[in-house]
Amino acid sequence: MKLGIVGTGMIVQDLMQIRSTLKVEKLAIFGRNPEQVEQLAKTHHIHETFSDYKAMLASDIDTVYIALPNHLHFSFAQQAFAADKHVILEKPITSNYSEFQQLRRLAKAKKKILIEAVTLHYLPAYQQLKQKLAELGEIKIVSLNYSQYSSRYDRFKAGEILPAFDPQKSGGALMDLNVYNLHFAVGLFGKPIGCVYAANIERNIDTSGILLLNYPTFQAVCIAAKDCSAPVILSIQGNKGCITVPMPASVMTTFELIANNGQRQSFEFEKQHRMFYEFQRFAEIIDQQDFAFVEEMLDISEIVCKLTEQARKQQGIHFAGE
Predict the structure, then answer these.
(1) What are the C-alpha distances in Å from 201 to residues 99, 162, 211, 215, 312?
(2) Looking at the domain assignment, is residue 322 inside a domain?
(3) What does the alpha-carbon distance between residue 222 and residue 206 come to, in Å, rounded to a whole number?
(4) In terms of CB atoms within 10 Å, which of 37, 150, 174, 279 comes out highest?
(5) d(Cα 67, Cα 203) in Å, to the nearest integer?
(6) What is the pLDDT of residues 201-214, one digit of tens each?
(7) Residue 73's domain spans which residues?
(8) pTM over 0.85
(9) Is there a single domain that holds both residue 134 and residue 112?
(10) In angstroms, rounded to a whole number, what is the distance separating the alpha carbons of residues 36 and 285?
């Protein structure tokens, strides 16, 4: 994989923590601030830098990783496909379902890979949890809470609108945090038959909210907050026992299975950086042209994308162009 990173924000800084493990023949980076780009390149041994996106797309990279504010995902991915590049899009994959449909069709027409970067799907703990679900019997209740007081919330309250809270930039708690809960649930249980969203709205954006997913035989509640905080706990309850995860799904390294008779099983996995496993897998997908796996993951992304759009519409949250 010859990878071009698009963006210089916090998520890219995170990715650079695993720079030495990236399975890439070449690494390039694009950013609007030449000094910042050059500093990143020097610090992390990035082979080539660009301050012009079209110039990056004209280079010999074969894949772009788009880590920009949510509202820019669609247009930058469109340009990448036009230049015959594979596309890894940071979550959420697009702002709405129409954009997702267009990108999926475009990727198929171009015979290129499109995949959403959602860390949890590649974590060993999540994979093991899938294998243990049957021990819970019939699933009855799923409760997923990702509440994290945003470092930007005080500035938002003071009147400064940053991308994380800007409806014009596809922000909000649903798109930033609850999307992880949705991927967790959909990855395990598939498509629900319906959803209901109740949110706390400030300046036309959800700063926190509760999304109820209705499945044929059980209910799942997905809670996310950027305006308050609480211990993050995920739980899956069945008629034979429960599974608890004491951390966000995006970084999970452990979980516990508690049977109705009190017997406990604890599972712990190596504490690698949260992006390590997904980028190991992305390199394999690109190098092996594993379109079958990509389609499986896009099916999950499609369900999640539809759910976030339905939820937003219920609360009157509209993004740019809608």
Answers:
(1) 24, 16, 14, 26, 11
(2) no
(3) 14
(4) 174
(5) 25
(6) 999 999 999 999 99
(7) 2-119+277-292
(8) yes
(9) no
(10) 30
